[in-house]
Design goal:
CATH topology of the largest domain: Aspartate Aminotransferase, domain 2
Strand order of the largest sheet: 2-8-7-6-5-3-4
Strand content: 5-15%
Order of helices and strands: HEHHEHEHEHEHEEEHHHEEHEEEH
Number of helices: 12
Helix content: 25-40%
Largest sheet: 7 strands, mixed
CATH architecture of the largest domain: 3-Layer(aba) Sandwich
Radius of gyration: 21 Å
Amino acid sequence: MRSMIRPDLLDLPGYTPITPTDVLAERLGIRPEDVIKLDGNENPFGPSPKALAAIAGERAYHIYPDPDQHRVREALSRFLEVEPERIVCGLGSDDLIDLILRAVVLPAAGSPGSRDGVVNCPPTFGMYPFSTEIAGGRVIDVPRQESFALDVAGIEKAAPGAKLIFVASPNNPTGNRLSPAELERLLATGLIVVVDEAYIDFADAPDAASALTMRSLRERLVVLRTFSKAYGLAALRVGYAVAPRGMVDYLNRVRAPFNVNGLAQVAARAALEDGAYVAKYVAMNRVERTRLSAELEALGYRVAPSQANFVLVEAKQLARELYDRLLRRGVIVRPMPPPIDAFLRITIGLPEENDRLLAVLRETT
């Protein structure tokens, strides 16, 4: 079998996703309801009641979903004030990342250096380099600065050897965001700039702005959004891209016709109509993010400033040991891979969940 597989994939490690709560609970010998899940950046409130009601009222399980997602794109068009022809929906942001790479990257035979380049700025979302490798592209790493800010000068130097760049804003796992000035410089490189705004709803800095506001510089700008975070629909896997019409046309050519299921389309439309519900969660996250950061710093941990629904916490050489201690107590956080394996990423949970996290940390500090 090995001889039949693409040579460039033979030694590619798989992406490591989070482990389901019930599986972890069984391994730990505790009840699933006693587990506090702070590793996936999910919405602890769950979906909007309007979304749940819409799902419950759906009966057309025997009919294929709308392949062009007309009603979802129309709802998003009104919500974003963007033409529906500039919107394409996907099976979460992961699907859209894959579609962009399939449309843009031309894998070449021969040496890895002959493949189309994709700029990646670690530490960041692991699906960018993983999906690039799967698509047959070449990952060009331009590491972030010690402060986790982008090395824009380094990106400018790397740009001539690449076709596109992925930038998360706010960034996962560091929590910092892309400034308008940085985005202008990235767009000036000539690269296709994909700004992943999975966590944009949580950004509350005075000068925080979505990349969608860069109307005049959008010729090669693609903005990704998801319903998995603020809207609490992670299990249904639905996201969308806002891009120039030409790019949307090519993305539609390479995507599967029924990539967003019917329940996801129904739930997404209903969730968009419940802005008050999202605002309630975002407000709670803002308060708890500030409180949790202060409490963690009081315990002696360094906390990276965050504009998302998680914080990145430096535990130094104790990071893995601390992760294991929390796990044994039913508190799940996300350990980080090298070169930031001295950090843990912690989702902002409900107040009582954050209290339990802090209580365990006080016992082990």
